[in-house]
Amino acid sequence: MRRPTHSAFTLVELLISMGVFAGVTVAMLTFSQTAVRLISRNFATNHSHEAVRIAELQMLEDLHEAASPFRLFTFNGTTYTDATPTVTADQEPLSQKFVSTRANGVRYRQLGGGPYRITANTTAASTSLTFDFGVGGQLPYSPQIGDKVVLPLIAREYAITAVTVAPTLGSTQGTVTVDATGGLGFTITAAGNVTTGYFYREVAFSAFNGQLRFHQNFTGAGKSTFKVIRDKITSPQPFALLFSTSTAQVDNLALRISLETYDPNYTGRRFTNGTATLQTIIPPLTIPPPVSGTDAY
């Protein structure tokens, strides 16, 4: 009686199979590790760029609403000082205009409130104006010294030198004194030629100590109060103005921003690039700005 025969792998075949299996396993693990790393890097990149984009969009939206020419300034940790822009040999690649000397701050005026109706008569010699600052039972804006008021009907703008009657929720009528030398020059009757006023407050952006800061009230002691828009800023002087030619006078209406930031969470994973860069120009206003200039310090 014959015994049944059984086929089996030889030792050599088993060793070859194990080698092939080990090679495939190593290849799959390498591929998985690379895929996980790429996915992680993409997530980190998207997060880094999204955080920067949100901060930049907020800044650009505020700058596009500028109601006055831009003024550069410097801040050394203690003192804010106006910076006089001078032309350099650097040319902005997109506009082909010449870039001014850089600064770590830019200030301008932004609409604070209005239109508010004048509620008290004036004479040509008056330097005081009374407005109703109430809007729907709220008080969204309250005037302060250093703000400017623009009266479109008579095409005049004035700096506020005093707030003689401050508006409140209980009494929204407020009175301001303006720098109208010799008086307004116009007679305003609140019940007749109804006149309204727009109020503009000075605001600013500054880059200092690795932070991009927004100063919502860049007047007097308000300069020291700010909101951090973005940290981890590596551009010490991101703001400049543009000259039409190498000798032309700057008009203070075109602001150039060159801002770079980095994400420590991104670079902490040993990825090669954890920075994001903003290069942009705030274009000149197509119409004259409501406020012709800003007050000196």
Short description:
With 297 residues, this protein is α+β, with helices and mostly antiparallel strands. It contains two helices and 15 strands. The longest helix is centred in the N-terminal third of the chain and has 54 residues.
Which secondary structure elements does this structure contain, and how are they paired or packed?
Blueprint: H1 11-64, E1 71-75, E2 80-82, E3 87-91, E4 98-100, E5 105-117, E6 128-132, E7 148-151, E8 156-165, E9 173-178, E10 196-208, E11 211-215, E12 227-231, E13 239-243, E14 255-262, H2 264-267, E15 275-282
Antiparallel strand pairs: 1-2, 1-5, 3-4, 4-13, 5-10, 6-9, 7-8, 7-10, 8-9, 10-11, 11-12, 13-14, 14-15
Describe the structure.
With 297 residues, this protein is α+β, with helices and mostly antiparallel strands. The chain folds into 2 domains: 45-106 and 203-282, no CATH class; 119-194, no CATH class. Helices cover 20% and strands 33% of the residues. The protein is built from 2 helices and 15 strands. Strands 1, 2, 5, 6, 7, 8, 9, 10, 11 and 12 form a 10-stranded antiparallel sheet that branches. It is elongated and about 125 Å long. The model has no long low-confidence stretch (mean pLDDT 83).
The percent range for strand residues is 25-35%
The secondary-structure element order is: HEEEEEEEEEEEEEEHE
**Shape type:** elongated
Radius of gyration: 31 Å
Terminal-residue CA separation: 117 Å
| Class by alpha and beta content | alpha+beta
Mean pLDDT: 83
Specify the helix fraction band: 10-25%
Q: Helical segment tally? A: 2
What does the largest sheet look like? 10 strands, antiparallel
Count the domains: 2
Number of strands: 15
The stretches of 5 or more residues where confidence is low (pLDDT under 50) are none
